Amino acid sequence: MKRVFLTAAALMALFQSRAQDVPADSTAYKSRKLKIEEVNLVSSYYSQNGGHSAVTGGIGTQKLTDIANTIDVKLVKYGQTGIKHTFDIEAGIDHYSSASSDMIDLSANSSASSSDNRFYPSLTYLRENEQKGRTLGIGVSSSTEFDYQSFGGNISFSQKTKDRNGEFTARFQTFIDQLKLIEPVELRTGGEGYGSANRNTFAATLSYSQVINQRLQVMLVGDVISQNGYLSLPFHRVYFADGSVHQEKMPDTRFKIPLGIRASYFMGDNIIIRAYYRYYTDDWNLKAHTADLEIPVKLSQAFSVSPFYRYYSQSAAKYFKPYGEHTGADEFYTSNYDLSKFNSSFLGMGLKFTPPDGIFGLKHWNTLEIRYGHYTRSNDLTSDIISINIKYR
Q: If exposure means fewest CB atoms within 10 Å of the residue's CB, which of 234, 280, 313, 314 is most exposed?
């Protein structure tokens, strides 16, 4: 976490001095030079524990910690024809330690799999015609860690209605991934190198948002997601009823359909009720329901709180069985409890500070947000996460 705060301190002075170049009457000013519109610095700490590790066949520790740091910079300029150009540059790095991953080699006290780093940059470009209410976007991303490499791309289109109270958005994404086939140590056939396999994901998202009246806004969202390739995880063990150990085996295709509705209701100037519901189904026979509620309350000009709660429930995928229950008659098999039947709760609070003179007296660093959440799952998994977001605008 220290790395982010040091970065924030270094960037504050730079962005504060750059902000002095913006004209005092900036409400109607549209800069034709590329300028910083917004910067977000986010740091989070995540910790979990449980007793159903897929690495050891559905039993054993799931203890894991993760420290994540991201910086997101939005740059804006207007062309001569009034077109708004936005560049969103984001970079993140995670460091995690995992007791369950350390059990890929059962005989090692501490192996190379006990911890890893993940680096994930992305770049998005948006071209917005504010007069016509139309936006086109394109983006690329990547994610790199020791045993996984992912490259992503996306395109998007948004169109507002004539009265600007509604907006339709279509977004198409693809992720081309490559996995190192790191097998459990006792299932390796020799050699020091690892094989590799591909996994591809294609997703289409359609959404429509509408202002119903001064108090109520709603959004409908639907996704269609198709995956193909190696969809197992090579280091997941599965223990059969006869005591034999096997490598997780899953189908090489998966088709998912999530459908959701989101609503925001403004109760005066100080309270907002935000609600969300999503239904999910896929061809692995996993079905799920998510209900989410958050109520931001503005207590003063500079301070607000946001209690939130999310409930989630899912059925088991048809290929899941607990430790020692699969047999040779099963074509596909997993003991990964993420694919089991369970329900979960996520409860927490957000605190947001927006002092008029800015954070630490730096006017354009205008928001500090701290969020904490506690997660419990009915199949013996708990976790906690705390995050800090500092915003420049």
A: 313
